[in-house]
Design brief:
Radius of gyration: 17 Å
Helix content: 25-40%
Largest sheet: 8 strands, parallel
CATH superfamily: Dihydropteroate synthase-like
Distance between the termini: 18 Å
Oligomer: single chain
Structural class: alpha/beta
CATH architecture: Alpha-Beta Barrel
Number of helices: 9
Length: 287
């Protein structure tokens, strides 16, 4: 199985990739965001130095209790970071021979207007949390050679969907990815440029999230990399009775273990160093 991005071709099976998180906003749920670009660059550099294979940068919090920002504001927040991205890895060496280096740059956005403005600057991955509501996102990613994350959710981003119920969440994911992969390839995106994300915590309740962790391996039939954005998720806080996201890193590592056992290949996390070491250990155990 291959993942083709703008600057990299990654073959699997291999040790799972670690995706670090950089939030260029002041309302991140985990409290790690900043509107200061110098701070964002320094944070990304620290994550690359800790072994991140991918840096996922976003200008808007996914929190649904905050209003959306404008397209112009999102572009203005992200453009300086994208243009300076080389600074994040120019002065740090790879931690080992398996780290993807230079690291991939992932753009966390769902707006086609933002993609059209920023993809020409050089983006490896589009992390689209809209559930591919716009087939245009796949077409723009294809035009500029970027891979695309297709995440499951329902309804519009930035709107809470706590009322959503599923008769069978895994069958729902099967049907959803069948449709969205077909739509993305019809729009011109190569299958090798598609990543799947089951959308933990997005329009899902605790039983749905836990079942996804238990049965994630069902999605391996699509033969595409599976991204698990497990870091400090609400479901972890519910299970462990930890209301503060920053206290959830041990639970995050437990979810990384569960994900690897089910075939997940990319983990989106805040604590890159702890995750990379856990991934190395688990990979050695799984052989």
């Amino acid at each position: 199985m291959l993942l083709q991005t703008l600057r990299h071709q990654v073959g699997f099976p291999r040790r799972p990739l670690v995706m670090g998180i950089v939030n260029i906003n002041d309302d991140s749920f985990s409290g790690d965001g900043s509107l200061n670009i110098d701070q964002a660059i320094a944070q990304a550099e620290a994550q690359v130095g800790a072994g991140a294979d991918i840096i996922d940068v976003g200008g808007e919090s996914a929190r649904t209790n905050r209003p959306p920002i404008s397209v112009a504001e999102e572009i203005s927040r992200l453009t300086p970071f994208v243009t300076r991205f080389a600074e994040c890895h120019s002065s740090v060496p790879p931690v080992d021979e398996e780290q993807v280096f230079p690291p991939m740059l992932s753009l966390n956005t769902w707006r086609p207007e933002v993609l059209r403005a920023l993809l020409p600057l050089g983006i490896d991955i589009v992390n689209d949390i809209s559930a591919l509501a716009h087939a245009e996102n796949a077409a723009v990613a294809a035009k500029y050679g970027a891979a695309l994350v297709i995440m499951h959710s329902v309804g519009k981003p930035k709107v809470p969907h706590r009322h959503v119920q599923y008769a069978d969440i895994m069958q729902t994911l099967d049907d959803f990815f069948d449709r969205r992969i077909a739509e993305a390839t019809k729009a011109g995106l190569s299958r090798e440029a598609i990543i799947l994300d089951p959308g933990i915590d997005f329009a899902k309740q605790r039983p749905d999230n836990l079942r996804i962790y238990r049965e994630l391996g069902r999605l391996n039939r699509f033969e595409r990399p599976i991204l698990l954005p497990v870091s400090r998720k609400t479901v972890i806080g519910e299970v462990l009775d930890l209301p503060e996201p920053k206290d959830r890193d041990p639970g995050t590592i437990a979810c990384v273990v569960a994900g690897m056992q089910q075939g997940a290949t990319i983990f989106r996390v805040h604590n890159v160093n702890a995750t990379r070491l856990a991934v190395r250990a688990i990979w050695s155990v799984l052989g």
